[in-house]
Design brief:
This protein is of the alpha/beta class. The protein has two domains: about 140 residues, Alpha-Beta Complex (Aspartate Aminotransferase, domain 1), CATH 3.90.1150.10; about 250 residues, Type I PLP-dependent aspartate aminotransferase-like (Major domain) (Aspartate Aminotransferase, domain 2, 3-Layer(aba) Sandwich), CATH 3.40.640.10. It has 15 helices and 15 strands. It has a seven-stranded mixed beta sheet, with helices on both faces. Strands 9-10-15-12 form a four-stranded antiparallel beta sheet. α7 links the parallel β5 and β6. α3 packs parallel to α10. The longest helix is centred in the C-terminal third of the chain and has 39 residues. The two termini are about 30 Å apart. About 45% of the residues are buried.
Amino acid sequence: MLPKPKKVQEVYLDHAATTYVSLEVFKVMKPYFTEHYGNPSSLYRLGRQANQTLLESRKIIAGLIHAQPGNIIFTGGGTESDNLAIYGIARAHEQKGKHIISIGIEHHAVLHPLEDLKKAGLPAGRQGFEITYIKVDKNGLVNPAEVAKAIRPDTVLITIMYANNEIGVVEPIAEIGREILKYRKIHNTTYPYFHTDACQAAGYLDLDVEKLHVDLMTVNGSKIYGPKGVGFLYLRNGVKIKPIILGGGQERNLRSGTENVAGIVGLAKAFELAQKNRVKESDRVQKLAQYLWQQIEAKIPKIKLNGPEIGEGRLPNNLNVTFMDVEGEALLLYLDEYGIMCSTGSACTSESLEPSHVLRALGLPYEYAHGSLRFSLGKVNTKADLDYLMKYLPEIIKVLREMSPVNLGTKKHAQYK
């Protein structure tokens, strides 16, 4: 029987999915819901004030990434920013070529637009884009030389995430950027353009676009203790894209719709705080992640750390672990009964149970992906939270393994290496 807690605690370990809005961010947002509610496109005082607020937010964000205010396009979040980058480049430059390079562990906000371009063509009925997915190694890392080798005369875009949302691997974006610059110089061209999804990286890594050598970069608010439904796309000077949302011509005619002023103010403040505190917070949460992994290693057999070792090559708050002979969804639901919230490596739908595309891209067996959990730590987490988790996790796994078809003899035992 599973032990029953005398008092259920709430332990949130899913910060890679979303974060709560910090009090500092909420405080600066509040006046823009009730007092400073003007439309930035209006010419009267409230509108002019709102427009000035947008400019100030652009300046804050631009300064933090070594860009200019005009390089910042506000959007409705990370997914929209990724879509705008990918479709925007594809539609603006299809006469140059229809080849795009990426990796198979991208977020679906990147993968789905790429697959759509591949099958649909622009416009419908015309030849679609060809997508080259560079293979990653067993830890999810892509080789910059392999990316460079895949560039062709018709390559218009390379899109590679800065840090992976599931296994925390940090990709060598600056090195890839330098390879792209070399190619452009040798071939006297401005192509291919380089985009990175930096949503997971924004709270922990340096996002200086000059150091990274990127032309487009995606960031959202919900991963950095800011509001949901707001983000930005960095667009380097001289890079042309076509909009995917048409209307009143806001955001330099690249993203129509009345700007979410309150959300943008919160995004700018959250990004400012994240970049200001990233070194100190990275050190703190990495120590917690290391402590949790040591506890898991010591108390639970038949496990595997997915992704790189804890350290410089991994997001400091990320821990993705496979617990063999256990279904991740069942484990997730049992933990929820104890107030512990994390995420699983497979996506459950009413019709199918598909393993994580990220873990499968690492070459892991089907069983590994189904038994994985991701713990992503954040500002509120302490050692006491992890001790509470480890008070119940070993016994829960033991019980679930005893209930597993593997141990009941109804299925051949998987051969784990």
